[in-house]
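Let us work through a complete example step by step.
Step 1: write down the sequence.
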Amino acid sequence: MANLIIDIGNTAVKATWSEGMTLGKTFRYQGERVRNFILSLTVREKADVMVISSVYNISSSDEAAYRSECHRLLILDSAHSQVLAQYGFPLWLTPDRIASLSAARYLFKGKGCTVVDFGTTLTVDITDGEGRYLGGNISLGCRTRFKALNRYSRALPLIDTPSEPGLMGDSLTASIEAGTVSGIMFEIEGYIALHPENVVVFTGGDANYFAKRIKNSIFVVCNLVLMGLALIADEYVKKVL
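Step 2: predict the structure and record it as tokens.
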């Protein structure tokens, strides 16, 4: 029987069915009816283990609804951190970051990793060759930066992510495009330079966009968080059995 893997993020929900570490089709949802979306995935089949990683705490009513649609429910939020404690990462990290680091440690065993997640926020997390966590930072994601410039400055328009931004702008629009994209590139290149021996892993919605603009060798694993959650689900099943 398959496991149902769900990641509730800041702006979207991603879900997939998994068999061990093998992921199926990814489902994505943006909206307010998160519970309805999750329950719609179990209409044809109940999950063996349903793993839900969430940036906000799951309510008791939602938890009861999810529990009725699986054999075992594993919630990973700030109120349910017991399972995550065994992975050796600080629990102030959000569950999705712990999941992505667990997946990176699994994929690149014995190597230090610099994991960059390009989402609503831009997170950078670094481990050493033994998988120990060295620290991480959070800043605004690419689209969030465009929105912030528009929101907090009356003179600046809202710009979409450009397909081919320059390094320097020659107009107001081009300056916003270049300043935002180049700023992120310089930021990431600086983090990579801190640990040049590390494997660099990009994930998140804008991973491919920035990977092709960085000169360093990059591994792009778009579903790194889901892969990490699948690993947690698989190990959870083995321990329960």
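Step 3: interpret the result. The helical segments are 34-40, 60-67, 95-107, 142-152, 172-194, 207-211, 224-240.
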